[in-house]
Amino acid sequence: MHFTVLTLFPDAFRFIEEYSVLGRAIRGGLVSLDTVDIREYATDRHGTADDYQFGGGPGMVMKPDPVFAAVESALAGIPDAERVATPIVLTSPQGDILNQDLVNEFANAPGMILVCGHYAGIDERIREGLITHEVSIGDYVLTGGELAAMVIVDAVSRFVPEVVGSAENVEHDSITSGLLQHPLYTRPAEFRGMPVPEILRSGNHADIERWRRQQSLERTLSLRPDLLETAPLTNSDRVFLASLGWSGVPG
Ligand code: 6GU
What we know:
35% of the residues lie in helices and 17% in strands. α5 (100-107) crosses α7 (146-157). It contains 10 helices and 10 strands. The strands form 3 sheets. It has a 5-stranded parallel β-sheet with strand order 2-1-6-5-8. The chain folds into 2 domains: 2-157, SPOUT methyltransferase, trefoil knot domain (Alpha/beta knot, 3-Layer(aba) Sandwich); 174-251, tRNA(m1g37)methyltransferase, domain 2 (Trp Operon Repressor, Chain A, Orthogonal Bundle). The chain has helices spanning 14-18, 20-27, 64-76, 80-83, 100-107, 124-129, 146-157, 167-171, 205-223, 235-243; strands at 2-7, 32-37, 50-51, 61-62, 88-97, 111-116, 121-122, 133-136, 190-191, 194-195. β5, α5 (100-107) and β6 form a beta-alpha-beta unit. By secondary structure, it is α/β, with parallel strands linked by helices. The structure holds 6-chloroguanine. 6-chloroguanine binds at residues 91-93, 117, 136-138, 140-142, 144-145, 148.
């Protein structure tokens, strides 16, 4: 998986290059990350990437010419067959909110180009002429799109084989499984008067699996009942949820 990130702050990405799991994936060649300084594609000597708005108003706007030149240069480095399948993503608070389905869609691409939005916004012709996806990481406003781009790179990289310890880790993810995670415990068996549930120490794997599944269902019902509408549920899941008062559609 190859990420090309166009940004006004390329140094911000040194963090993920060094950061534990992703840094290891990058150094190990499982993931590659190129950061491109948009200012290097500016057409003037000062590296101007923003300008005043036509029509007036507060805040600067990202100029189209440096962003087009930087994206075109990134595209030129991608083999023909991969180019059409490469999403060109703008990070912006106006975008579709990132979720695991969108992460999976991106993870199936050969690579991604990410454009980090800044200032009051971008010239509309960037959106019209270049961008294939506009993505937000939640309903709040950040000072720039860099942190959002790092979130996307992190979430997508987890789906590259071998980036995360074992495939099982990703498949058993909370959210990927459609449910929240069951509680986890490690040693000591009792901590400050709080014991580990006896069943986890029973050695009975079938009972443990059932208990974990029920804990996931119970947690999801109380914290994120919306997830139950789309989670793959078995008949016994539905019976268990009904015993907790869930009024969802029976299977
Ligand atoms: Cl992608 N950019 C900015 N500036 N703010 C955000 C965001 C992105 N996602 C949520 N808030």
